[in-house]
Amino acid sequence: MDLSPEELQFLSIPDIVRESISIPKQSPKTFYLITLTLIFPLSFAILAHSLFTHPLLAQLNNPSADPSQTHHRWTILLIFQFCYLIFLFAFSLLSTAAVVFTVASLYTSKPVSFSSTVSAIPKVFKRLFVTFLWISLLMVVHNFLFVAFLVLLLVGIDTQNGVLFVFSAVVILSVFVVVHVYITALWHLASVISVLEQVYGFVAMKKSYELLKGKIRCAAVLVFGYLAICGTIGAVFGAIVVHGGDKYGVFVRIVVGGFLVGVLVIVNLVGLLVQSVFYYVCKSYHHQGIDKTALHDHLGGYLGEYVPLKSSIQMDNLEM
User: Transmembrane residues, as ranges (predicted)?
Assistant: First the structure.
């Protein structure tokens, strides 16, 4: 990012995306290896997951299935789901750590390589994981409240009044989506904070909440756009690759599946780059300069380089 801190706060959504896309050009080999080893497995697992679960679910829904086989298939399904979630969360955190660390290194003119990024990931991962646990707790509470309101809707509203029932359901669903998008934005920004500042967990979430003030609309558009694109890719993959066996041949399904995996890889990479750039935009908007020397030393600490911090990462004025 060649823009000055004062200019970052004025970036529009297209500018943020454009700036994010240009970052890999500064170290193409590093980002190529990050994409190949971390983001590609993550993207492939997200889409391929339904390929393995669909046959099992079809067999479980078969009323003529042998009860003993059904129990066995349920066991396989639960084990597979557990392993999938562990893989998904692990590679999601690893990808976030790698991209945020690399972008920050480029921002501070620190030498960048894939080996240095991999070396830093273990220490970064611990901080990200704690933050992720706090966000997961918040998500659980959010989903519980959503289910509770749905139950209250079914119990307290006359289902015979179709207009009132549909209106109430739409309102509850809209609130759920809005809050879900906000929590996702909070999570993404807190993840970057956990890597670049001396805080993590609940404190990182609190800092994320403060930084989002004044930029909530921008964050919501970016997060909703990302989720909508991912949802569309998943829907097309499901319709053609997973459930399209009767309409499409094997070759078409393989080509479409490979293309969609490639698109999702690009979307995930750009999404991680955007959340990194958005952090600097929020810091600039709140006039919280970033001391590049202190940030450089902070990143070096992940690599075992002992360089005492000369100042806090947050400063009122940036010394260029």
Answer: 31-54, 74-107, 128-157, 163-196, 216-242, 254-282
Which residues have a Cβ under 8 Å from the Cβ of 306 and sit 6 or more positions away? none
309, two tokens: 């911090």
Q: Token pair 């067999």 is at which residue?
A: 59
pTM for the whole structure: 0.85
- Between CA 131 and CA 200 the distance in angstroms is 6
Written as six digits, the tokens of 237 are 């993959």
Span 203-215, pLDDT tens digits:
999 999 999 998 9
Please name the residue that has the structure tokens 């990182």.
204
Phi-psi region of 62 (alpha: psi -120 to 50; beta: other; left: phi over 0): beta
Cβ atoms within 10 Å of 83's Cβ, excluding its own: 10
Q: In this structure, are residues 208 and 193 in contact, taking their beta carbons and an 8 Å threshold? A: yes
- 317 class by beta-carbon count within 10 Å (0-12 exposed, 13-18 middle, 19+ buried): exposed
pLDDT, tens digit (0-9, with 9 covering 90-100), for 57-82 = 776 676 666 666 777 777 887 888 88
Where on the phi/psi map is residue 113: left (φ > 0), alpha (ψ -120 to 50), or beta?
beta
| Mean of pLDDT values over 184-207 | 91
